[in-house]
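Quick question, first post here. What does this chain look like in 3D?
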Amino acid sequence: MIKRTSRGELFAEFLGSMFLVMAAVSSMIFFTYVLESNKSIAILANALSVAFVLCALIEMFGSVSGAHFNPVVTLVMLLDKKINAGKAALFLLVQTAGGITGTALTHLMFWDEKGVLFSVSENVRSHAYFGEVIGTFILILAILMLVKGKSTHVPMMVGFLVGGQLMATSSTMFANPQVTIARMLTSSTSGIRPMDALVFIVMQVIGALLAYAVYRFAFSKVQINEEKGG
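> Answer (accepted):
Ran it through. Tokens below.
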């Protein structure tokens, strides 16, 4: 039987993953199909939406579950022995379920534009595989360093990083397997075809493992200077 505190952690991961996907998918639908903006404006709006929402979600749920919302973050926390294998497995399940639910709720919000709960994407992103290694690498390394340094600005820093990298990587910064799976199920411009999604997930895992390896090699034993400023 799951303890009460664990239920809270799992529900936090579910809700955080759900709202993160809704921010990623709904902003593209709204700006592309409703406002009929060009693609560059839609991507800028998407970056701001994801950054703002992610910042708020981490602040909301960070003290409950750690605010992973991302299977590769959970994987790295497992490797770093910050969570156990049982909790990690449950986190992966609820993160994925939350992301898929986010796609369904987004399509409900924009029913007049989409008219379905799910639709398999045909968006080709085969040009962007390497971008997922880079995007995931910097995200995971940033999280590890922020946690190590006991930063009090994690929500803002991660939000800024994700929003910035969304506009600065060839893949537009998925860097998250559950988001990738959820975006397989939308025909909007935020979608990704299943074939590319599978490669994206592999690239995300590679990027996360490389970041963890660099962290362990170069930074894990570094003494953090607690003095701020010059």
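Residues 4-219 form a domain with the Glycerol uptake facilitator protein fold (CATH 1.20.1080.10).
The chain has a mean pLDDT of 93.
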